[in-house]
Amino acid sequence: MNAHTDTDRVEATLARLRELGERITPARQAVLRVIDAADRADEHLSAEHIGERVSTLEPSVHRATVYRTLTALTGAGVLTHVHLGSTGTVYHLATPGSEAALEASPAAYGKEVRQPHGHGHAHVQCVVCGRVQDAPSGVLDEAAGALREALGFELDTSHAALLGRCADCAGPA
Amino acid sequence: MNAHTDTDRVEATLARLRELGERITPARQAVLRVIDAADRADEHLSAEHIGERVSTLEPSVHRATVYRTLTALTGAGVLTHVHLGSTGTVYHLATPGSEAALEASPAAYGKEVRQPHGHGHAHVQCVVCGRVQDAPSGVLDEAAGALREALGFELDTSHAALLGRCADCAGPA
DNA sequence: CTGCCTGCAAAGGATTTGCACTCAT
DNA sequence: ATGAGTGCAAATCCTTTGCAGGCAG
Q1: Residues of A in contact with B135 (CB under 8 A)
Q2: Residues of A numbered 81-140 whose beta carbons fall under 8 angstroms of chain B's beta carbons: which are they?
Q3: Contact in structure between B144 and B115 (CB atoms under 8 Å)
Q4: pLDDT tens digit at each of 173 positions of chain A
Q5: In this structure, what are the phi and psi dihedrals at residue A109, rounded to the nearest 5 degrees?
Q6: Separation between Cα atoms, residue B166 and residue B63, nearest integer Å
Q7: pTM (2 decimals)?
């Protein structure tokens, strides 16, 4: 049941790229597959780390291409990135829907790409062990409202990780 | 009118350093003065930028020393830093009387950490223009509570900036 | 006097860029 | 065929580190 949905997610993204007039290349496919696999495993990969995995998957792809690809695909709206405090930036597929098998309808795109930013969930990172976790959805809703009202600031709740100490590192003092 | 309090803030910090057994050197004084001045002007300076200003104030101070000084003084608890999304890290004078070595020694990191209680304020940064603003205090209180309850995660509300669009950049798309 | 702190220079690692070529469309 | 995308290598950028000497305490 996985090999199937796996393909769907990457394929759906490729389809969106095509619609946008972007070219489909082996490098881009490899990058998307690596990120998709990481997403499914709840991993958060940096550009450099993605590059390593792409190399094993498609050895001819150069590191520089990975960087350019990440930038291009993020610009196209099919990838998103999250800035972690001091440990760089990690990437996600921007595919609508999420982890659970939403609905394997090939034509599920139905609509256009959503907002390039702001539809993902928030992340929290432990400054002690570096672990990144997904935050419950809505944790920043009130903050977003308060900031909008006080400053006219439109918060992008998923663009930067919140920092602190995870349960494991905070408890055992 | 200000020359007085200016001196006071830096002096107070120097006093704290002395109490901690840290040495007072021209380089450290210059760094503190630069950061203090920036704080007063609501500026948020990166290590590199601090280095530039220190150079004009005390030309003999080497860049490497600025980096080491920032690390050391942050460790001593008299400075704090805020991670901005993709534009590096900026430094502040730590507010006397509240947080001490939040990340003092590597050992203290996961150990008897003081609660990052309400002292430091949160920052928001505009991803369009890069501007950094202070967030109203308390905006993250609810989020902090929700994260503690849901994940046992202790949020450090002032360690990373929240990203989004400021009033100027959000409105007039 | 001690050893913490510094200056210097060189190393380091991550990301970017110029250029010519290739391949997806 | 045509130019977006790529490979390669060099260049940058910011930050760190080894070492020897200097100054604060």
Answers
A1: 147, 150-151
A2: 83, 85-86, 89, 124, 126-129, 133, 135-136, 138-140
A3: no
A4: 555 666 789 999 999 999 999 999 999 999 999 999 999 999 999 999 999 999 999 999 999 999 999 999 999 999 999 999 999 999 999 966 532 222 223 333 323 333 333 357 899 999 999 999 999 999 999 999 999 999 999 999 999 999 999 999 997 66
A5: -60, -40
A6: 33
A7: 0.85
